[in-house]
Hints:
Elements: H1 22-40, H2 62-65, H3 73-83, E1 99-100, E2 120-121, H4 122-133, H5 137-148, H6 158-162, H7 182-198, E3 209-214, E4 223-228, H8 231-239, H9 246-250, H10 263-275, H11 288-293, E5 309-311, E6 317-322, E7 325-330, E8 336-339, H12 342-349, E9 365-366, E10 372-376, E11 379-384, E12 388-393, H13 396-402, E13 418-420, E14 426-431, E15 434-439, E16 442-447, H14 450-457, E17 473-475, E18 478-482, E19 487-491, E20 495-499, H15 501-509, E21 524-526, E22 532-536, E23 540-545, E24 550-554, H16 557-564, E25 580-582, E26 585-589, E27 593-598, E28 601-607, H17 609-616, H18 619-622, E29 631-633, E30 639-644, E31 647-652, E32 658-661, H19 664-672, E33 687-689, E34 692-696, E35 700-704, E36 710-714
Antiparallel strand pairs: 1-2, 3-4, 5-6, 6-7, 7-8, 9-10, 10-11, 11-12, 13-14, 14-15, 15-16, 17-18, 18-19, 19-20, 21-22, 22-23, 23-24, 25-26, 26-27, 27-28, 29-30, 30-31, 31-32, 33-34, 34-35, 35-36
Helix pairs in contact: 3-4, 4-7, 5-10
Amino acid sequence: MGTRHWTFEGIRESAVGQWLASAVAIALVATLFVADEAMVNVPLPASAASAADWDPGYIIDDSIFYDSSTMNADNVQAFLNAQVPQCRVATYNCLKGYGTPTETRAADRYCAAYHGAPYQTAAQIIDGVARSCGVSQRVLLVLLQKEQALVTSTAPSAWAYAAATGMSCPDTAGCDPRYSGFFYQVYFAARQFQVYRLNASSFGYQAQRWNTIKTSPLGKCPTQQVYIANQATAALYIYTPYVPNASALANMYGLGDECASYGNRNFWRLYSDWFGNPHHYEVADGFRWYWDARGGASGIMGNPTSYLLSDSSNGTGWFQRFTGGTLYTSTLGTTAFVAKNQFGATYSAVYGPQGPLSWPSSEQMCAVNGVCFQTFLGGLVTSASGAGTHVVWGGLAPLWIQSGGPTGTLGAAIGDSEFVASPSAGWMQRFQAGTLTSSANGVNIVPQGLVASLWAASGSARGGYGWPTGAYSCNAGSCAQDFEVGVLSSTSVWGAHPILWGFESYWKQQGGLSNLGAALDDLRFGRASGGGWMQQFTNAAVTQTSTGGMVRLPYGDIYSLWRQSGSEASSFGWPIESATCVANACAQLFQTAIITSAPGVPARSVIGGFTGAWRTFGGIATVGPAVTDLRYSKSNTGGWLQQFSQGTITQTASGVPLFSHDSPIMRAWYYYGAEATWLGWPQSPEVCSPSGCTQNFQHGVGRTDAAGTVSFSTN
């Protein structure tokens, strides 16, 4: 009954049927060609129906479809007159002037009694059947137009009247002669809609559920899943069991592709063009309390723009669209409104309740700082000026809430959640104040700044440093954060630099930020002096030779002299021991020298054999820092001399190093000319007793008495 496809104001691909006389069939062929031309050039009404308003699950509202009080016979006649000002001469009058005898029909379960007459106009039949069977006169007018173009035809054929509504004219067989003729077509079509309504569960297409509907009777054409919202829409699909595809909707007043069908599209389009919007939405009973509490139609939600829909995705739930957004409720969540703004657009983009966000679990909320958010069962959405609107998925969502949410340390998301599978798995997302990560290393935040920029430039978690493994911390202007490979540190002046491999371990052993501070440059390799590595930090440099361990090189005079001399490429080579300090005097051993320094005393080097002698005689604690450079003298057979804060180391050309403490004898020796005097070079250390001190020289002896008087004598 009424099963057909590709109907467009008289264009029908269903079987013509064997019951028509051959003359009528010939007339039909001519009519088809005329109608086909008319179909291609259907004039658009002043306010054309738009495909954007088409809803396959809600073609017309029940309250409109089953309302037979909207017109009377005079109204119908006036409408018909307006559609065809002048009929062409034809075997049959056009519909506005058509009349025929009608049959009295007894009341039954589906229609009230119909009182026939020897003659009734088409308008009287349409109105009488509408009132008898409880179907809108407007619906019947649209049905007559979509099936045979009877309303606007200026020369309708006998066939058009015989099969006026397509009642019992299936696509796969001829029309049933029991329902032939205008009265029977109108009456039994209207009655059939009540059959569908009162026996809804007996038919394949049913309201309030998802239905699989063909787009065409052609087997190769696809189907669509349609959630039929109401009984009137279900009835139309039972009557004409095809849903228009995208091509039919793209050319609303013309033809689509070979899989296009037009019957239900044309019904909706014709009704919209002639009588206005066929939809009538009421706030769902379960939602009215919420709608009323938010100001009703004048509130943020506005009027409903859809019927109540159900969805079994992610647990059963229901939703209804309004001017200002969509109201949702589910068995797992709560009742919450998703506004038609950036939140609604983002939620729709990830497939709403059917997607991984699932059902909303809170209202949209905004903090005074301008950060807004809304939570869902599968995550949340944040939005802020300049940050955009982004989804925070799964496990990251509660972490964002725990961090303080919109007023917390992170702010709004400025990027989408990212899953990183390699080199190790985890989730990350950028926010206004930093990047939130969740991996096997736990939950960490990489704050916006120099460290975050260096990490991002390397590829973030996909890059060489991997995931953060600890919290970001700062000390005295130096900041750092641990990562799977290395520590990334920064200062505002020197920028961000990684601390890698053995340098990372040493840095941590030394106390990290609180001791060495942040790295001031990248680790570098130097080939000079056997090769080694060096990195500068806030409070000291650290070096390592290719064969040795880590050495700390504090900033100061020693470091400056080494750097000014050419660092590891200088004659000093690499530092091989950390500095030793006593009472503010310091010394550090290098590959070929010792460099010493003290307050008020420039840094000087101890080189050659004097390095071993200096260490043997007690180093910085006993000999002290050098106060002069090493010098050579030719006097008295030649030798070397270097003064230190606590004495002098000398060595003759044929002797061994000798340390002489600072004393009145040595001060007098220096006063008279040192090794250039007749005394020559010291030959022994000073020896003291209660009565005085003595010291041997090459050519004499120096003495002091108990009073401290110095004297020299020859050997």
